[in-house]
Design a protein that fits this description.
heterodimer; A: about 375 residues; alpha+beta; Rossmann fold; OB fold (Dihydrolipoamide Acetyltransferase, E2P); 2 domains; six-stranded mixed β-sheet; five-stranded antiparallel β-sheet; 20 strands; about 25% helix; elongated; B: about 300 residues; mainly alpha; MetI-like fold; about 75% helix; about 0% strand
């Protein structure tokens, strides 16, 4: 039987607070799956339920078809990598990695062999006798991974283990984790609030908000085809235009917004009269030079407020007719980006295929600080 | 201390402040600890003489007192009993304090932790002698504990807790258990709870988590708790006097008896012997359990 992990209507209630509400997802063996969401969205609670530290109030978690209910964390075929790694400071690197085997009564010789193998796998050869506090951040990370892999878990759970590292190392470790997952073929379940991490590493991502899964999909699906206003605004940058739908046909809809009539894909087939939000990414917006025709595209005109040079791209900001956050346009730095003085009027355009209409959900803004 | 350390201390406390700290520490160490110890050492090695013979031809250094103190079979029994019973007191205190400290340390900052701490402290606002007398009442032949045990059918007739070691060990454990709980609590409180979860997640059952993670982490606290409890128990006078009577003699009672009989020299010899024995015992234990002095000072 394949070690597929199923969450079936899993909920967790802490007193009056619903941390997780009816989460159902099947994670096939060997998948790199991420739960992405702001802090307090319930992702850590899900992780602790899978690892067995807390029990769901409702629903069932199954591995290879068998319920994990009543099986303590020390007897579950899952291994958890803690946010602060929780390496044992009084043990050497080798003792840390071999700990899970030692408590299982694996004989010393076999343990040593396995530890050496894992040190090799995690690119730490010869580090066995070192003390944990002699290691760098990235090396500690690898020890934590090796320690978890030593017990040959069916599912490896990772609780934002990269958050303590600096940017360069974090990007390096992303690639390393992805590579390790492919080589071992173990299911990785990754918890993060960092969308870059989730999108870069995962086969599939579940975006969570207020204890519910908003959308499950591949990184491309999540980024390019958000299903809810929360996903559209939480994952990546997005410009928002609010308005009532005045026309809806053939999978497209038109809203009447303060910025004018705008046409976009209408995946939920919202009817005429419905209040809706139109999302369009900054990199899908184009500057329209003076006098150029803009037929077949949505055109918005506004006053330039700022232009920020970021190397790879140049971000141009326009005053939003609805007020609030300015409209962002991200232009690839091809060496010909015009320098626009604040205050000048500028037209920008985007095609309907690159914009999406989503219902005005109960949570249109991402809750909490994503940082 | 480094040069920078000195500068920092002077900047924070001023020259007067630094001088005061040093004078205070020096007074404490030299006048209150070193000087009396030296005087006692001096007394222990001089013969017991009348006032008029002090400084006379008979007033020469001798090991006679020490030979009496540790040479007499009865004294030897009392010395060993004191050490053995103090070890027992330490062990009973440790066994009781360990789970309590662990639970308190795990309950981080919760209101009930504060309540229990206050509950533990309040009895110690009462004088030690009064608390010993309270135990005397509790353990008396027809006291509540005997009545309860008889009512529960565990005993058929009252057990003579008093005037023997059982009562003393109970009383001493109670008297000094806080000195065990606090170092243990302090040590355990600094343990990252994720360490416990990590060990559990890797498959360790509860006893292994304690053996591999909690105890090694708390070792300095356990060591300092044990040393303090042992030393206090071995040096206790009121509790053995009140609960042990004459049939459970403590070395401290021997010392007291000699000082009472004006034989300061023999009393001092008993004292020196007790200090040396206890220190030797503690150092042996520290070596056996691989505890370094630096660990305890943390």
């Amino acid at each position: 039987m394949r070690n597929d992990l199923e969450l079936d209507g899993v909920s967790k209630q802490f007193g009056d607070f619903t941390a997780v509400f009816r989460v159902s997802v099947t994670i096939p063996q060997g998948e790199f799956f991420s739960f992405l969401g702001p802090s307090g969205c319930g992702k850590t609670t899900i992780l602790r339920m899978i690892s067995g530290f807390i029990d769901p109030t409702e629903g069932e978690i199954r591995l290879a078809g068998r319920s994990l209910a009543g099986i303590g964390p020390n007897r579950r075929p899952t291994a958890l990598i803690f946010q602060n790694l929780a390496l044992f400071p009084l043990m050497t690197v080798a003792e840390n990695i071999g700990y899970g085997l030692k408590v299982r009564g694996v004989p010393r010789a076999e343990r040593d062999r396995k530890v050496a193998e894992l040190l090799e796998l995690t690119a730490l050869p010869g580090f066995g006798p070192k003390r944990v506090d002699e290691l760098s951040g990235g090396q500690k990370q690898r020890v934590a991974i090796a320690r978890a892999l030593a017990v040959e878990p069916a599912v490896l759970l990772l609780d934002e283990p990269l958050s303590a590292l600096d940017l360069k190392l974090r990007q390096h470790m992303r690639a390393e984790l992805r590579d390790l997952q492919r080589r071992t073929g173990i299911t990785f379940i990754y918890i993060t609030h960092d969308q870059g991490e989730a999108l870069a590493m995962s086969d599939r991502v579940a975006v969570m908000s207020h204890g519910r899964i908003e959308q499950i999909g591949t990184s491309t699906e999540i980024y390019d085809h958000p299903q809810t206003a929360f996903v559209a605004s939480f994952v990546g940058e997005n410009n928002v235009f609010a308005g009532r739908i005045v026309d809806a046909r053939e999978g497209y809809g038109v809203i009447d917004s303060p910025a004018g009539r705008l046409r976009a894909v209408n995946p939920h087939q919202l009817p005429v009269g419905a209040d809706s939000l139109l999302f369009v990414r900054p990199e899908r917006m184009r500057l329209v030079s003076d006098g150029a025709p803009a037929t077949g595209r949505n055109v918005v005109e506004g006053e330039i407020t700022d232009e920020v040079f970021e190397g790879l791209a140049v971000n141009i900001f326009l005053r939003h007719p609805e007020g609030g956050r300015p409209i962002a346009v991200s232009v690839t730095n091809d060496g010909a980006v015009p320098v626009l003085a604040p205050g000048t009027r500028q037209r920008i355009a985007f095609v309907a295929e690159h914009a999406v209409l989503l219902p005005l959900g109960p949570q249109t803004q991402p809750g909490g600080d994503p940082a | 201390m480094t040069r920078a350390g000195w500068r920092d201390a002077v900047r924070r406390f001023g020259y007067g402040g630094v001088a005061f700290i040093f004078a205070g520490c020096a007074f404490w160490a030299l006048v209150l600890i070193v000087l009396p110890a030296l005087l006692m050492l001096d007394q222990a090695f001089r013969p017991f003489l009348a006032r008029t013979e002090w400084g006379g031809p008979k007033d020469v250094y001798t090991v006679k007192n020490l030979v009496t103190a540790v040479g007499e079979p009865l004294n030897q029994v009392i010395f060993l009993k004191t050490i053995w019973a103090s070890v027992l007191v330490t062990a009973v205190a440790l066994v009781n304090a360990y789970p309590l400290s662990f639970i308190l340390a795990r309950g981080k900052r919760a209101a009930w932790v504060g309540a229990i701490m206050v509950g533990l402290l309040i009895p110690f606002w009462v004088n030690e002698i009064l608390r010993a007398f309270a135990w005397q009442l509790l353990l008396a032949r027809f006291g509540p504990i005997n009545n309860l045990l008889i009512a529960a059918g565990i005993l058929t007739e009252p057990y003579p807790f008093l005037n023997q070691d059982v009562g003393v060990i109970l009383g001493l454990t109670y008297a000094y258990i806080l000195f065990m709980i606090f170092p243990l609590y302090n040590a355990m409180e600094s343990l990252d709870p994720n360490q416990l979860d990590a060990a559990r997640d890797l498959g360790a059952p509860a006893w292994r988590i304690h053996w591999d993670i909690v105890i090694p982490h708390s070792k300095p606290g356990i060591a300092s708790g044990c040393i303090v409890t042992f030393m206090l128990a071995a040096g206790s006078f009121a509790v053995p006097q009140i609960l042990g009577g004459t049939r459970s003699l403590w070395v401290t009672q021997l010392i007291y008896n000699q000082f009472d009989a004006i034989n300061w020299n023999l009393g001092a010899a008993y004292g020196v012997a007790l200090v040396v024995l206890c220190l030797a015992f503690v150092l042996t234990m520290m070596a056996a359990f691989r505890v370094r002095l630096g660990d305890i000072a943390r």
